[in-house]
Structure formats: C-alpha cells, structure tokens
Write the structure tokens for this entry.
Amino acid sequence: GGLPEEYASVIGTPTTYPPLAFAVRRVTPEFHEDILLFTKLEAELAPDEGSRRLVRVSDPWIVSPTTALLLKDFGYALEVRSELETSAPSTSVFKLKAFPSGQEDSFELADPSPGVSDSYRFDVTVYGDYVDRDGAPGVRSFNLADPRVLVSVTRLLSNGEERRVVDRALVRPGGRVSLPGGDVVIGAVTHWGRFRVWRNGATPIALLGVLLGAGGLAGRLLFPRWEATVAAADGGCTLAVWTDVYGGRRVGDAVARELGIS
C-alpha cells in the first residue's frame, strides 16, 4: 500500500511523507521466453475507491504538476505459512532478492517452542515456468505461470551449530515442507514492486518559464523587429535595415520608402 505509515526509506526512517495514498493491486512483468530484453513491467494502482491507474517503468503516473509516481524495481515474493505445532498458524510474505530465475536467497523463521531460541533458515531458489532439464530444475521463462521453489532448510541452534533438516526439496506453490516441529507451507509466488514518489516544487515555475520563452519566440517570428541604420557618406547617406529574427540586411531607397523614412 501507499499510506504514509507504510512508506519505507532505504536510508532510514523518513521524517516527512508525500501527500499521496494508493493501494497496489498487482505488479506484472512479462518476458519473451527467458530473455530479459523486451520486458513489460507495469503496476496497477488504486488511488481511490473504484479508480484504477497503470504505472509502467517508462510511463510514470503524473499526480500533479509537482508530483509523480515511478515504478523503479521489482522481484519475486514468497508467501509462507508456518504451521509449527507449538504456535498458531501464521502467514508471512518475504521479499526475495532471487531474480532472475535460478538465483538463491534466504529467510528465517523462529522456532516457537517454549524456552527454545533456535530458528530455521530457508534457502530458496525460484524457477519461473518450471521445466525439467534431465532431472535438474530449469526455467522455460521468467514468468510465473507454472513456478517451482527449490527449498533447503537448516536448523540454527542457539549454541551456534547448524543442522541441515531439508535438502533441495522441489516444491510447487501450496506444497508443504516437513520440519521436526511441524510443517511450513510454501504458498503463492508473486512479484513485489518498489515505487518512488518524486516531488519538485520548482516544476511549475520551470514549465512557466518554458511557456513564456516559447511565447516570446513565437511573437518574434510573427512580428519581427526591424532596426534601421542611417550613415552619412560623400555628401549623401546610406540606409541599412536588419531583422533580429533572420539576421537579414536590406539596403536602399526601396527600404526607406517601405518604412516611411525620407
């Protein structure tokens, strides 16, 4: 979402927030097979009840003359449901730095057993549009029409020891991973998006300056200024006329008659 309390800063807790609220309905990248080129990446936002906005990488949402919303980054997100026996089931969503397909990332779940400070580390690799390549997991494309998740789980003991309890289990979305204390369900694989709210109070002034400059140029083209110079020479005079738009020069009596100069 985009409510002020949901904004996060990469450099710490922000002290001010942009005056903008929205909900993210989806972030959808589409690829040609497994090629990263020709990527289509867009997000559907809901600024108000019933309204809909599409934001693309190269097409931001211009909220006002001073504010724009840009889609900056994206990746895989994994929904995980913990059903460990000593706690009530809970669901978490982990943002993975595991894009493109075949990259590994990890997250941890604490062991909820009373008096135990152990935890489980899940090493996961997402395979978009999974295909079996001679017994090895592979990808048909980077899209998520038919993904798989390769999961390895290590129990991190409070004394510093590590014990592998699950080794390279290939799981469909909705599949279970059995641990000593219960099951963990690997739920939906989706996408996350990172948005940037851009604000610049000087933008209207800059736009006004551009408009005034364009208007002045158009005025000069339609109504060019003429400058006449009269110089004495050999008992007579010469007349030169310049235009400030074209830099042209016209000399002679015909110019004088045209301008009404005698």
In short: Residues 203-222 form the longest helix (20 residues). The longest strand covers residues 67-84. The chain has a mean pLDDT of 78. The CA atoms of residues 22 and 226 lie 56 Å apart.
